[in-house]
């Protein structure tokens, strides 16, 4: 049987992977992705070559900025909070609008975007994280796309998206939407509005797409950089809160909060954690266009913040108290655990401790499917292996303890 004390000892034991420049160059050589190079770098070259001959008119620039902000919200609210994390639900009209405007930002279909983002949360800062921040700023910002290798991503469940007709429809018509809504529509508006179709296509189309892309990419790179921001909720990942970047990214750079509470429709709750996307979702909720707005309890938020503020001595004392609490749990055999699990289908074992996860399955950031894989099994490797859980996650787990395995083992 696993030692229950192992739950406390193993946290933080996993080594951070190291990547040399030689290894990175070899990675890009082996995984060079020509289409993504053209898609990401080609428009920059076009703008550089043609901008000197196309005057940037005031109306066109205002439209580009406005269209860029609307497009940014389609990513933060739609791609990210609605589809990637299911932090709220929305009516059909809102979902279609978010899917169309989101596609016009050329950040690829919802299904693909969510796949890499869920892998990022499930395998943060490991080699199975698509934009692993431990590989440096270049890789986490854009290198993971220029040297794309989807086989290196950790597996995730996206079956819920494959059942969403809006997601399926958007994937099928993705490129026609990018061209018509993302590039031609701004050109048409500028042409019929003030006779500037070239500027509309160049600045409100191509340039706006590039800028929106890289603002989103800043969340993957700068919001995980060791020299940036703060970690008020957890230091178990590289994610950080950066208020100024949060303004630019419409709330997304309150990233330390988000990694601890990914299912919360808000990315921050304090005045110094600005989140414009949150208030739009809240307004839609008041209007009846969005519902099931998921929030973390104030108690859990404060507990995460408190744990992060604790000193080393306090954490050691808590570890001792945890071990004492484990010793007071009723003991059961492995056979009894399996029988109880078969009867109720709600128990899992981690490091010799049995947890009742019935009420937590729908709230788990990795999805209900991930927990279901562990029911009736020893999930020690699953919990401690691919993702280094935060102290907040450990606190939640403590509240689910019901038994401890007998020393006879299994």
TrEMBL record:
Class of enzymatic activity (EC top level): oxidoreductase
Recorded GO CC terms: endoplasmic reticulum membrane
UniProt family annotation: Belongs to the fatty acid desaturase type 1 family.
Localization (cell): Membrane
Function comment: Stearoyl-CoA desaturase that utilizes O(2) and electrons from reduced cytochrome b5 to introduce the first double bond into saturated fatty acyl-CoA substrates.
Keyword match rRNA-binding: no
Transmembrane segments: 35-55, 61-79, 173-194
Enzyme Commission identifier(s): 1.14.19.1
Topology of the protein relative to the lipid bilayer: Multi-pass membrane protein
Any GO molecular function: iron ion binding
Native source organism of the sequence: Penicillium cataractarum
Primary location recorded for the protein, binned into one broad class: membrane
Pfam families: Cyt-b5, FA_desaturase
Top-level taxon of origin: Eukaryota
Gene Ontology biological process: unsaturated fatty acid biosynthetic process
Start and end residues of each Cytochrome b5 heme-binding domain: 329-406
Cofactor descriptive note: Expected to bind 2 Fe(2+) ions per subunit.
Keywords: Electron transport, Fatty acid biosynthesis, Fatty acid metabolism, Heme, Iron, Lipid biosynthesis, Lipid metabolism, Membrane, Metal-binding, Oxidoreductase, Transmembrane, Transmembrane helix, Transport
Name this polypeptide is given: Acyl-CoA desaturase
Enzymatic reactions: octadecanoyl-CoA + 2 Fe(II)-[cytochrome b5] + O2 + 2 H(+) = (9Z)-octadecenoyl-CoA + 2 Fe(III)-[cytochrome b5] + 2 H2O
Cofactor(s) essential for the protein: Fe(2+)
